[in-house]
């Protein structure tokens, strides 16, 4: 989206490298889970129920004898999807609306401000759960629910940033050149305004995984027997005292992926700001 | 000739940055005499403001100062931190370009003046109150009694500069350091402040070191001047001598860059290129890449600041040729 | 006057001051900064009109009205006789192409995320100045025109010095081959030695491309150097207007006189110790009654406090808005 030219790899900030590596590996696991998972994630093995971590099952097995490591690896596909699809529509739509609102300003902006107020009055999770309850459980409905609420936050960030940028002379220079408003907004202002939204997007992807897992845990997101970290944690909740590994390892996967997104966001912010 | 009030000898200021050591001021020497206004002129990055701040060591952390700044028999460079704090804002006061940022926005003017009076005089509280009113009168702020209780944002730009001068005067300084004090002001207000400074010099007998980029301001106020380029003084002299007969190509170019009457719509005698950054100061004479007089020697050997008389010095290999080329002033 | 290309007739512009809801509920009438209070000017084809004044005199607002970055509240800006406020669509774009603006701040007037090539190519293609195949060549020509090296094209604005950035701004304005150039404080952010380069470039380009220039600045020396005619502004009004030589030699308005005497001469032998104008600029929210300058004028009479002086001819196309017919030889002792 924005030009990041002439940046040598050696000069990239460390968070960007670490975050990028974590997410790169995550992406590979999401694309080719079968190549890395030692077992079929859905195969029951009644001869090996609730087994502790061992050489054969490094992360142990669950109450149906499924290999926890294999389920975690296969869950990457679902959870990375959640990270992307639960945020990309909110990011795109919010960015466009925010850019227009910030540029037009005045009454439109005041009206938008009231809408934001109305939405942030409700706790985010409660609102999403309410929408999913109406639409019915499942991943697609969860994406819809999160996007319907989430775009507002992006729009608010972008609108504030566009308001700052449009006061600078290069925006007036564009108008004096006879450029159309849309060209000024999207070609000139937006690339200079988008950095904080991109950074927020990265954090939001981490939050989306947590949210997806929460909804999975509550039975409103991914549906069993599909492998999904939240579902896995929920599966293990009754065996916490006897078979902690069923819940704990998926928890680590959530933390690690969330950390990857956060680091990537910090790194991107550093790179994009350094250009000024 | 009277003994100098302040004597600066081989002053160098270096900034230690992650990218290496930057020399902002390089072996600068000059004297300031009692009752004179000494102008330090230069463009951005010439080191004029850093020189001024180095005099009282008002520099950010990570800067080192070498050389000698002789003030009443004491070296300010080697002085202890506690001792220099007494000098700063006491015998030597400073005023800045941006009075809005140099004044404390949350304190009324009265507090900021009496603070200085408390630190540097023996007056009791009623004496301080009277003196604060008197100071506002001196700098030409009308209705002093009321305005003392106002905050900086309630003052206009010119009045703020006057208030800052009043604070600087509170300690009866012998030397005032002025860092572009009129650059942010409109021309009619600048004229008022410059005249105020001249009056204060006459009435209080203090000396002023005046840093500016505007040669017009130098012509209107200063007695002697030094022109700085890339951290060094390239030419010094009385204002009349330098304006009449510049001997450094840079000074001549600066004077020629300013439009004057009688030459309307003609090409100005401009200097090609831009002033160098601190990290990339050219070898030899720092000005040679932009100089029309430059020859091989200028590229190889840095010219020393040669004294040419009691008040005159120039650092140029071709000063005779520059002088012969004539001043651009009619 | 036959060759008027751009003119303003009695234009005014007010900027409302944001007020609290409370003060509006209390029924206080809406306050506004009166930036322009009836300005009428003619800009003649091929000339440089200087517009000079101190901060708050409305000169930048006027510049922005001329290129329609602001719409006037009343009055009209006429370009070749057409009210630019009525232009829409392609007609407005053509106007924007023919009347260009260059901005003061070399650091904010260029999009930091576009290379010089992208900046120029965009202007050239949006206005279809050249067929696609010739855009590259034209960019090279434009860089040469403003004396930038050809390798400047692939750099970003932050890689240039202030003076070079102003050249890029000039190149962008010239890329669409305008007839009028409105330069708002073109060189005031630059070092003195660099100012002279840009001023020389502007003079040269004006001759070569037959441009009409509106040069807005606070620096009297610069305005005198560049302009054929000068308009002096004070608090949103033109107080004096006419040929540069006659205004600088014999100012007919006390404000112009004060401005000229306040500007320090670059000649130590012409030093003076009299203050040119006392007092400070009145608030543009509550304008003084009568002549706007009377609060600071050493020659103010009773009439000045009540009656607004009109711009009256003083011979030779020289106009001044003062009740006095001539200024005394020395306005102040």
What does this protein look like?
The complex is a heterotrimer of chains A (276), B (330) and C (333). Chain A has 276 residues and is mainly alpha-helical. Chain A contains eleven helices and no strands. Chain A is elongated and about 75 Å long. Among the domains of chain B are: 66 residues, no CATH class; 98 residues, no CATH class. In chain B, the strands form two sheets. Chain B has an eight-stranded mixed sheet with strand order 6-7-8-3-9-10-12-11, with helices on both faces. Chain B has a four-stranded antiparallel sheet with strand order 2-1-4-5. The model of chain B has no long low-confidence stretch (mean pLDDT 91). Chain C has 333 residues and is an alpha/beta fold. In chain C, the strands form two sheets. An eight-stranded mixed sheet of chain C has the order 6-7-8-3-9-10-12-11, with helices on both faces. Chain C has a four-stranded antiparallel sheet with strand order 2-1-4-5, covered by helices on one side. Chain C starts with a strand and ends in a 13-residue tail after the last strand. At the A-C interface, helix 7 and helix 8 of A face helix 3 and helix 4 of C.
Task: Give keywords.
heterotrimer, B: 330 residues, alpha/beta, eight-stranded mixed beta sheet, four-stranded antiparallel beta sheet, 13 helices, 35% helix, globular, C: 333 residues, Rossmann fold, 31% helix
Shape of chain B: globular
- Rounded to the nearest angstrom, the distance between the terminal CA atoms of chain B is 31 Å
Q: Give the total of beta strands of chain B.
A: 12
Q: Structural class, judged by helices and strands of chain B?
A: alpha/beta
Q: Report the top-level CATH class of chain A.
A: Mainly Alpha
What is the helix/strand order of chain A? HHHHHHHHHHH
Name the shape of chain A in a single word.
elongated
Percent in strands of chain A: under 5%
Overall pLDDT confidence of chain B: 91
Mean pLDDT of chain A: 87
CATH architecture title of chain A: Orthogonal Bundle
Radius of gyration of chain B (CA) equals 21 Å
Biggest interface pair, counts: B-C, 48 and 51 residues
């Amino acid at each position: 989206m924005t030009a990041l030219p002439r940046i040598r790899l050696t000069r990239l900030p460390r968070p960007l490298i670490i975050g990028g590596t974590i997410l790169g590996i995550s992406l590979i696991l999401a694309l080719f889970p079968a190549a890395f998972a030692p077992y079929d994630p859905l195969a029951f093995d009644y001869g090996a129920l609730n087994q502790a971590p061992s050489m054969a099952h490094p992360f142990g097995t669950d109450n149906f004898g499924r290999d926890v490591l294999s389920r975690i690896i296969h869950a990457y596909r679902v959870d990375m999807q959640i990270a992307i699809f639960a945020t990309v529509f909110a990011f795109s739509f919010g960015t466009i609306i925010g850019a227009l609102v910030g540029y037009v300003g005045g009454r439109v902006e005041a009206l938008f401000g009231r809408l934001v107020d109305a939405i942030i009055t409700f706790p985010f999770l409660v609102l999403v759960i309410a929408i999913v309850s109406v639409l019915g459980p499942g991943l697609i409905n969860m994406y819809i629910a999160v996007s319907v609420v989430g775009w507002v936050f992006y729009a608010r960030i972008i609108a504030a940033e566009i308001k700052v940028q449009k006061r600078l002379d290069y925006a007036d220079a564009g108008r004096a050149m006879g450029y159309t408003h849309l060209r000024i907004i999207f070609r000139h202002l937006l690339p200079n305004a988008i950095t904080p939204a991109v950074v927020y997007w990265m954090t939001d992807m981490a939050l989306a995984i947590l949210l997806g897992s929460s909804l999975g845990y509550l039975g409103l997101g991914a549906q069993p027997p599909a492998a999904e970290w939240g579902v896995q944690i929920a599966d293990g909740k009754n065996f916490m005292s006897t078979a902690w590994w069923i819940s704990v390892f998926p928890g680590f996967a959530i933390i690690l992926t969330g950390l990857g997104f956060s680091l990537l966001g910090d790194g991107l912010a550093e790179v994009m700001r350094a250009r000024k | 000739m009277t003994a100098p009030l302040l004597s600066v000898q081989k002053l160098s200021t270096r900034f230690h940055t992650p990218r290496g050591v930057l020399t902002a001021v390089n072996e600068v020497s000059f004297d300031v005499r009692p009752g004179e206004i000494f102008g330090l002129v230069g463009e951005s990055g010439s080191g004029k403001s850093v020189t001024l701040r180095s005099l009282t060591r008002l520099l950010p952390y990570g800067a080192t100062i070498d050389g000698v700044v002789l003030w009443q028999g004491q070296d300010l460079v080697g002085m202890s931190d506690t001792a220099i704090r007494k000098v700063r804002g006491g015998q030597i006061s400073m005023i800045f370009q941006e009075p809005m940022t140099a004044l404390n926005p949350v304190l009324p003017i009265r507090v900021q003046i009496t603070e200085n009076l408390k630190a540097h005089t023996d007056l009791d509280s009623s004496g301080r109150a009277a003196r604060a009113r008197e100071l506002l009168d001196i700098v030409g702020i009308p209705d002093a009694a009321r305005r003392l209780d106002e905050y900086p944002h309630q003052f206009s730009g010119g009045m703020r500069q006057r208030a800052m001068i009043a604070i600087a005067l509170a300690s009866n300084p012998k030397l005032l350091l002025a860092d572009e004090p009129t650059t942010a002001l409109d021309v009619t207000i600048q004229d008022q402040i410059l005249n105020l400074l001249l009056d204060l010099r006459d009435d209080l007998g203090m000396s002023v070191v005046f840093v500016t980029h505007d040669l017009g301001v130098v012509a209107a106020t200063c007695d002697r001047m030094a022109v700085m380029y890339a951290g060094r003084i390239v030419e010094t002299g009385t204002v009349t001598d330098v304006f009449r007969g510049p001997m450094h190509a840079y000074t001549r170019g600066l004077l020629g860059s300013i439009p004057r009457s009688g030459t309307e719509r003609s090409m100005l005698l401009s200097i090609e290129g831009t002033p160098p950054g601190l990290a990339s100061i050219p070898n030899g004479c720092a000005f040679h890449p932009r100089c029309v007089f430059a020859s091989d020697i200028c590229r190889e050997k840095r010219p020393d600041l040669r004294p040419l008389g009691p008040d005159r010095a120039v650092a140029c290999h071709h000063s005779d040729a520059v002088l012969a080329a004539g001043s651009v002033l009619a | 006057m036959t060759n008027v290309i751009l003119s303003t007739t009695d234009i005014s512009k007010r900027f409302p001051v944001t007020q609290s809801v409370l003060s509006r509920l209390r029924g206080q009438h809406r306050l506004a900064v009166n930036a322009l209070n009836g300005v009428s000017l003619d800009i003649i084809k091929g000339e440089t009109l200087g517009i000079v004044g101190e901060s708050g005199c409305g000169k930048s607002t006027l510049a922005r009205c001329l290129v329609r970055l602001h719409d006037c509240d009343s009055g009209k800006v006429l370009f070749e006789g057409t009210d630019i406020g009525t232009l829409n669509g392609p007609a407005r774009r053509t106007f924007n192409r023919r009347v260009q603006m260059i901005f003061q701040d070399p650091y904010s007037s260029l999009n930091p995320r576009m290379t010089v090539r992208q900046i120029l190519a965009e202007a050239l293609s949006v206005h279809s100045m050249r067929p696609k195949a010739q855009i590259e060549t034209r960019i090279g020509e434009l860089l040469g025109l403003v004396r930038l090296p050809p390798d400047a094209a692939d750099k970003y604005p932050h890689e240039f010095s202030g003076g070079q950035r102003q050249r890029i701004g000039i190149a962008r304005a010239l890329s669409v081959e305008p007839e009028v150039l409105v330069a708002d404080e073109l060189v005031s952010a630059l070092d003195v030695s660099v100012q002279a380069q840009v001023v020389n470039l502007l003079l040269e380009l004006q001759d070569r491309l037959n441009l009409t220039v509106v040069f807005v600045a606070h620096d009297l020396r610069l305005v005198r150097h560049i302009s054929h005619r000068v308009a002096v502004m004070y608090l949103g009004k033109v107080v004096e207007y006419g040929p540069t030589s006659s205004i600088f030699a014999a100012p007919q308005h006390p404000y112009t006189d004060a401005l000229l005497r306040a500007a320090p001469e670059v000649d130590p032998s012409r030093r003076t110790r009299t203050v040119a104008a006392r007092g400070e600029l009145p608030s543009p929210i509550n304008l003084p009654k009568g002549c706007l300058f009377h609060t600071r004028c050493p020659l103010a009479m009773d009439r000045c406090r009540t009656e607004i002086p009109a711009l009256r001819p003083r011979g030779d196309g020289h106009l001044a808005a003062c009740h006095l017919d001539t200024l005394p030889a020395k306005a102040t002792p």
